[in-house]
């Protein structure tokens, strides 16, 4: 029976369902909720964060230190929202969870975290993308299944 289970989540209903499955199926294990923010594909709109500020001396469209500072602050706030929801879900199962926030490519971070932190199982949601959407966005779940050195449960 697994003693440490990793549940990567971006806060979607499907990833919260994966957390519920982990809490139900591995009730005696330590559950680690991992939220990965990808600076390239974060979902934080570059338009929202990097509005041209013509008075700041930066050319329109440039990435300034201020952009990265604001991006990082928004990423931290988003992670805390995700963790708060995960704690609420875990509380419904009378279970506590450990929360971890990392930055990088989600595929790589999930696999590396599992390898480096004695994870016995990974439970994650799959959005079941097909066609062009899957080609353009890729599938984190598929990549993790192929590369992970521990068993992976994919929840749909």
In words, what does this structure look like?
With 156 residues, the protein is α/β, with parallel strands linked by helices. The chain has 6 helices and 5 strands, in the order E-H-E-H-H-E-H-E-H-H-E. The protein has helices at residues 13-25, 46-49, 65-92, 106-116, 131-137, 140-147; strands spanning 4-8, 30-37, 97-103, 121-125, 152-155. Helix 1 links the parallel strand 1 (4-8) and strand 2. The longest helix is centred in the middle third of the chain and has 28 residues, at 65-92. The chain is globular, with a radius of gyration of 17 Å. The model is unreliable at 44-57 and 132-137 (pLDDT under 50).
Which key phrases capture this entry?
alpha/beta, globular, 5 strands, five-stranded parallel sheet, Rossmann fold, about 160 residues
List the helices and strands and how they pair.
Blueprint: E1 4-8, H1 13-25, E2 30-37, H2 46-49, H3 65-92, E3 97-103, H4 106-116, E4 121-125, H5 131-137, H6 140-147, E5 152-155
Parallel strand pairs: 1-2, 1-4, 2-3, 4-5
Helix pairs in contact: 1-3, 4-6
Please provide a brief summary of the model:
The protein is 46% helix and 19% strand. It contains six helices and five strands, in the order E-H-E-H-H-E-H-E-H-H-E.
Strand content: 15-25%
CATH topology: Rossmann fold
**Strand segment tally:** 5
Report the order of strands and helices: EHEHHEHEHHE
- Give the strand line-up of the largest sheet: 3-2-1-4-5
Total of domains: 1
Cα(first) to Cα(last) distance is 22 Å
Give the low-confidence spans: 44-57, 132-137
Mind telling me the CATH superfamily name? HUPs
Biggest β-sheet, characterized? 5 strands, parallel
Shape: globular
Rg calculated over all Cα atoms: 17 Å
Mean pLDDT: 83
Summed up, the helix count is 6
Highest-level CATH class: Alpha Beta
CATH architecture descriptor text = 3-Layer(aba) Sandwich
**Alpha-beta content class:** alpha/beta
Helix content: 40-55%
């Amino acid at each position: 029976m697994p003693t440490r289970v990793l549940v990567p989540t971006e806060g979607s209903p499907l990833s919260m369902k994966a957390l519920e499955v982990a809490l139900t199926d591995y009730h005696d294990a330590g559950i680690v909720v991992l939220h990965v923010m990808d600076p390239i594909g974060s979902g934080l709109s570059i338009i929202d964060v990097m509005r041209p500020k013509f008075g700041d001396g930066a050319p329109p469209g440039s990435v300034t230190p201020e952009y990265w500072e604001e991006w990082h602050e928004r990423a931290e706030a988003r992670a805390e929202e995700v963790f708060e929801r995960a704690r609420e879900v875990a509380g419904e199962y009378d279970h506590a969870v450990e929360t971890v926030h990392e930055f990088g490519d989600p595929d790589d971070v999930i696999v590396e975290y599992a390898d480096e932190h004695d994870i016995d199982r990974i439970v994650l949601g799959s959005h079941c993308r097909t066609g062009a959407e899957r080609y353009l966005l890729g599938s984190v779940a598929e990549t993790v299944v192929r590369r992970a050195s521990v068993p992976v449960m994919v929840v749909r």
